[in-house]
Inverse folding.
């Protein structure tokens, strides 16, 4: 059910007021440390190192919003399991099409469920990396959204973030707002027909922020887009941190380049995130890439996993990354180590190795 805009505003206010309630254990806010090299908890000043999981889909490949309406106990169970494994941060991915019914009107049912997710995180004691504007399943992207030009698409995206931030501003469980997963700026003279990059394993992880370059410098377009969305968030929630999830080819190097160059965009963000999957025999190259994201603010490796290398090489990558990263976020797909042991599937054996490593490793 959806409601008129005036009713939406009232409901969002109620959700904000109910984000926490007396009796909850109060979580401290996460801030960037004074030296700009990491994070601390406020007001205690204790160091905080993000260490957790992407909770991007379950063991059957379903997105969170595919089952959180009808299988909420599963979400609660998964959060408890991630906490037991040692996570202090969980990255969740919110789909644009589930949260906006028009360019200006949010879906109040989804906002209510999001508020419930915040309450769960507060009870369990887990901070959330809230990644928005997801279009992972192309069939779920609204036709009206697909038809928007750049100006109106950015407005719709800003309205998405305003709605999320209105609900989130009262919750101590938010680590950060991540504007989008793996955005790419258009080429100066490029004119494309698709907003989404090619699929990987049936999901579209990369998005273009515009389909037309119009002769503009790509990094400048990236920075302008970040500024517009960050401004929308800060108008509703001035305290929580803002970042964006960058592909590792977001550097001014030959070859692939998303144009979200760290040195250009960092003034608009509280910290940087990079997605890094070290490759076999290329651990040093991955570390060199990580170093290039160190431009004066903390860097979190927001996606990582031994997908392309051995467990031994991944452990080496992690150890070598510690002087250059302020946090690490891997993956959890709803299956515990015991369930992986009983499975007998090759994929679950790989996942088991990862979960066991995560459990015994200290950031």
């Amino acid at each position: 059910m959806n409601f008129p805009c005036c009713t939406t505003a009232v409901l969002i206010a109620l959700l904000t007021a109910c984000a926490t309630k007396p009796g909850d254990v109060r979580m401290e806010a996460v801030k960037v440390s004074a030296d700009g090299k990491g994070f601390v908890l406020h007001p205690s000043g204790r160091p905080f190192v993000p260490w957790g999981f992407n909770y991007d889909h379950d063991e059957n490949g379903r997105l969170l919003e595919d089952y959180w309406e009808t299988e909420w106990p599963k979400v609660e169970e998964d959060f408890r399991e991630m906490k037991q494994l040692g996570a202090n941060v969980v990255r969740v991915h919110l789909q644009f099409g589930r949260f906006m019914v028009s360019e200006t009107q949010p879906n109040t049912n989804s906002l209510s469920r999001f508020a419930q997710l915040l309450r769960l995180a507060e009870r369990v004691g887990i901070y959330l990396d809230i990644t928005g504007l997801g279009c992972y399943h192309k069939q779920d992207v609204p036709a009206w959204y697909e038809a928007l030009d750049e100006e109106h698409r950015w407005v719709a995206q800003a309205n998405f973030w305003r709605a999320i931030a209105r609900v989130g501003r009262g919750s101590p469980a938010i680590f950060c707002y991540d504007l989008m997963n793996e955005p790419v700026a258009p080429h100066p003279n490029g004119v494309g027909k698709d907003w989404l990059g090619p699929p990987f394993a049936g999901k579209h992880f990369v998005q273009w922020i515009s389909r037309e370059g119009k002769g503009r410098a790509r990094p400048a377009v990236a920075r302008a887009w970040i500024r517009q969305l960050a401004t929308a968030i800060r108008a509703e929630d001035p305290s929580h941190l803002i970042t964006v999830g960058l592909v590792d080819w977001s550097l001014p190097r030959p070859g692939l380049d998303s144009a979200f160059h760290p040195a250009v965009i960092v003034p608009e963000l509280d910290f940087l995130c990079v997605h890094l999957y070290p490759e076999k025999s290329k651990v040093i190259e991955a570390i060199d890439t990580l170093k290039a994201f160190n431009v004066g603010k903390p860097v979190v490796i927001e996606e990582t996993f031994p997908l392309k290398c051995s467990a031994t090489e991944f452990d080496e990558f992690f150890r070598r990354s510690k002087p250059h990263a302020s946090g690490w976020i891997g993956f959890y797909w709803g299956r515990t180590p015991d369930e992986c042991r009983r499975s007998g599937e090759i994929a679950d054996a790989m996942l088991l190795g990862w979960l066991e490593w995560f459990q015994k490793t200290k950031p």
Summary: The longest strand covers residues 127-134. The radius of gyration is 20 Å. DSSP finds 13 helices and 13 strands in the chain.
